[in-house]
Design brief:
The protein is α/β, with parallel strands linked by helices. The chain contains seven helices and five strands.
């Protein structure tokens, strides 16, 4: 029933913030997160909250190929039309007719105009809303539940060390080793 909504706790997304300000100048945008909350406090259920709006603003914190988090799927799951910015290659996995991809527009003003057009044309809005989420209506391989289950089962069975007692991730462990080597080197340099 409402126009657009987002749930954001991190205020660091400059692109998102600029877009939301531009859109808010035209129509009310409900903000249900801790950042710029205008609905009386942070919402408990993001999907339920978004389901009350036509458009779910789904902006990543940054844009680079392959970086697509839960934001787009949350908006789809809520039954809204996602307004997405982030992964410039997002339409290789997700149906470009099912969401508003900000990368397809020359400016935020053009995106705002498109949302207003969709809002004012119920038939066009419903057509977009009815589109399948994924390209060709088929989820990509990484989203296949049986494949994910098999991978998790294999990891759990193959790893003899319980997850709870494992050391940090390889990346974190490498960072720790580099930092400790630097510390030892600094200490040695002070002694000589």
């Amino acid at each position: 029933t409402g126009f657009a909504a987002l749930v954001v706790s991190n205020g660091g997304g400059a692109t998102r913030n600029e877009f939301v300000e531009r859109l808010s100048a035209k129509r009310f945008v409900a903000s249900g997160g801790r950042f710029r909350n205008n609905v009386g406090g942070p919402v408990e259920d993001k999907i339920e909250f978004l389901s009350n709006y036509k458009f779910g603003i789904a902006f990543e914190n940054s844009s680079y190929p392959g970086y697509c988090t839960e934001k787009l799927l949350d908006a789809f799951e809520a039954g809204t039309i996602p307004v997405y910015w982030g992964d410039p290659l997002v339409d290789s996995d997700f149906n470009p007719h099912a969401f508003v991809n900000c990368h397809d527009f020359p400016s935020h003003a053009a995106v705002v105009q498109r949302l207003i057009e969709l809002d004012e044309d119920p038939e066009q809005y419903q057509t977009m809303l009815a589109e399948p989420w994924f390209t060709n209506g088929t989820p990509p391989a990484f989203a296949d539940r049986s494949r994910l289950s098999a991978w998790l089962r294999q990891r759990i069975v193959a790893d003899r060390v319980p997850i709870s007692s494992r050391r940090a991730s390889p990346r974190r462990e490498m960072r720790r080793l580099i930092d400790s080597a630097r510390t030892r080197r600094r200490f040695r340099n002070r002694l000589t």
